[in-house]
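Example for tutorial group B:
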């Protein structure tokens, strides 16, 4: 029986949502392949996140990796996994296609000599190997790939899958990893610069208010932010808005940005091109405001408002403030 690892990341002390998605995917693959499924969480204090991952997989290893802030998280994760692989090897590893997940996958690929299939939107099992689905050409084409050997690493796009907890909680085993002087990854963090005005990760947000070309400039995003603040949401953007320099890339949603799955997605001045659609189409409810009644987003929005966003949004913000006042 083979072994399949799913690697959960830590976000503010808890399991990042990609970990719940990987755990759900791992259970499906383990059921199809007969593999033993093991979840792994690496961090200075992995206990809480590991316990949360145990709601999705039967076995979890919480690897405490003490150390300073001068080592990249990806290097710590990869170092701990390489050490674990020497003792308890696996056949396949699933990681999130996040900044840390992608970096860790690269380090693991070199350290283990395994291939990587990146940015998966879906994974199934057939003929003894994962079959990895990837989206290309702006979402117009889906490809399937598999490894030509017995081992491999897959990175999965956040929010591409729906998480579902297991029927019962799994077990958690605690271990410790301390990097040795001969560790292969010698990169050190010499400084961190926080992005001014950066909000919580849009990948984790339950409400997202996004602006597109129709926002008409950086000042227009103040209107977007006003509605986001009123609804307690995060601010997103299309590639056109980011390329124009109106808002940083960290807010970009779509084929070349982030995939999100909020409860509510409000698209302001966004036409709904396929490149943006693939990044937000799995939102539970989509509301769009656009002056063009023939905008493509009208075809898949749950509610489509034909109007000027600079008239509609201030009226909506005022109505929300009035409702809040009335509620006391």
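The residue assignment follows.
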């Amino acid at each position: 029986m083979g072994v399949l690892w799913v690697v959960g990341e830590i976000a503010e002390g808890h399991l990042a949502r990609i970990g719940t998605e990987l755990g759900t995917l791992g259970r499906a693959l383990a059921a199809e392949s007969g593999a033993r499924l093991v979840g792994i969480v690496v961090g200075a204090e992995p206990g809480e996140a590991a316990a949360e991952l145990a709601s999705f997989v039967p076995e979890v290893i919480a690897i405490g990796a003490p150390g300073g802030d001068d080592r990249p998280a990806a290097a710590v994760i990869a170092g701990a996994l390489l050490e674990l692989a020497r003792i308890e090897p696996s056949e396949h590893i699933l990681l999130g296609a996040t900044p840390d997940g992608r970096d860790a996958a690269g380090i693991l690929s070199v350290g283990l000599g395994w291939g990587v299939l990146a940015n998966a939107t879906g994974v199934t099992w057939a003929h003894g190997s994962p079959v990895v689905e990837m989206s290309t050409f702006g979402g117009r084409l889906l490809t399937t790939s598999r490894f030509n050997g017995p081992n491999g690493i897959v990175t999965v796009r956040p929010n591409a899958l729906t998480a579902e907890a297991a029927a019962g909680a799994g077990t958690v085993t605690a271990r410790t990893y301390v990097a040795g002087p001969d560790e292969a990854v010698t990169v050190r963090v010499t400084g961190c610069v926080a992005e001014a005005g950066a909000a919580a990760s849009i990948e984790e947000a339950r409400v997202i208010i996004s602006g597109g070309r129709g926002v008409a400039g950086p000042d227009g995003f103040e209107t977007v932010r006003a509605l986001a603040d009123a609804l307690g949401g995060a601010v997103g953007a299309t590639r056109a808005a980011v390329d124009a320099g109106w808002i940083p890339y960290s807010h970009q949603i779509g084929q070349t940005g982030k995939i999100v799955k909020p409860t509510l997605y409000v698209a302001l001045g966004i036409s709904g091109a396929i490149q943006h659609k693939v990044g937000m189409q799995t939102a539970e409810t989509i509301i769009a405001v656009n002056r063009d009644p023939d905008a493509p987003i009208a075809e898949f929005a749950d509610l489509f408002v034909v109007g000027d966003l600079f008239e509609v949004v201030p009226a909506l913000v005022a109505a929300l403030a009035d409702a809040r006042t009335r509620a006391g």
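The chain has a mean pLDDT of 89. Compare this with the pattern of hydrophobic and polar residues in the output above.
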